[in-house]
Amino acid sequence: MIVSPATMVSLTSRELEPGDQMSDGPLAEALHPVEIRVLGSLIEKQLSTPEYYPLTMNALIAACNQKSNRDPVMQLDLDTVEAAIRALRAYELLAVRTGPKIRKEKYAQRAAERLEVSARELAVLCELMLRGPQAPGALRTRCARMAEFNDIETAPLALEELAGREPPLVVQLPRASGRAERRWAHLLGDAPVEEGAGQDIPSEAAPARVAAGNDPIEELRAQVQDLAEAFRALEQRFDAFRAQFE
């Protein structure tokens, strides 16, 4: 299987402004894509590597710009991340940790408190924020590193809980052409759009297990993509290590 690389997005340093007004989103303002990346990166590191959390500025920038588990891949500079931090603090989604025992300012997410979500729901939101729309099968595979997702019904149930909020935090997108399973997207930013939507596949190609959020093709696709990204990251680390001796 050929895995398409994530799209590289270059963002120059600029002052960010809050996003457009949302009529049906969970926040008063739609978050800018950079704000979503910063917030999602903080959530991911808290859930997957709590021993290194909260994050320093350098660690946060590295998390935002990492190539694995990101779509699109971004290249954010200090000024851009600082502007996003200011906006997220205004939305009460981010806190700055300081104190006599903290040598450098550290940053922590407040989305769990602000949105009142469980650890599993937070993990689902995080994956949707960092990688865009995904099917329940792919989410179950990818969220397992941040919370317990052992049961095949865990991801669909978390999505239903998030969608049942008032206002909802996620939405199920129309089925895209060529996909057996409908994907889900978060509602923290601009209204999501599913590419190629509106062309349903034949019913025989979408068995009952897909409706239950257990499409093996989507899960396999997610696993292959994750392995490919991990391999590329390992290659880059090895090249950097080898360069020290050349």
What's the arrangement of secondary structure elements?
Elements: E1 8-10, H1 33-48, E2 55-56, H2 57-65, E3 73-75, H3 78-90, E4 94-97, E5 106-109, H4 111-115, H5 119-131, H6 136-143, H7 154-163, E6 170-172, E7 184-186, H8 208-211, H9 216-243
Helix pairs in contact: 1-2, 1-3, 1-5, 5-6, 6-7, 6-9
CATH class of the largest domain: Mainly Alpha
The N- to C-terminal Cα distance equals: 35 Å
Rounded to an integer, what's the Rg over CA atoms?
18 Å
* Mean of residue pLDDT values: 79
Q: What is the H level of CATH, i.e. the homologous superfamily of the largest domain?
A: Winged helix-like DNA-binding domain superfamily/Winged helix DNA-binding domain
CATH topology of the largest domain: Arc Repressor Mutant, subunit A
Low-pLDDT stretches: 1-8, 10-15, 18-23, 199-213
**How many strand segments?**
7
Structural class: mainly alpha
CATH architectural type of the largest domain: Orthogonal Bundle
Succession of helices and strands = EHEHEHEEHHHHEEHH
Q: Give the number of helices.
A: 9
Overall tally of domains = 2
Q: How much helix is in the residues?
A: 40-55%
Strand content: 5-15%
Described by strand count, sense and barrel closure, the largest sheet is: 3 strands, antiparallel
Indicate the overall shape: globular
Please give the order of strands in the largest beta sheet: 2-5-4
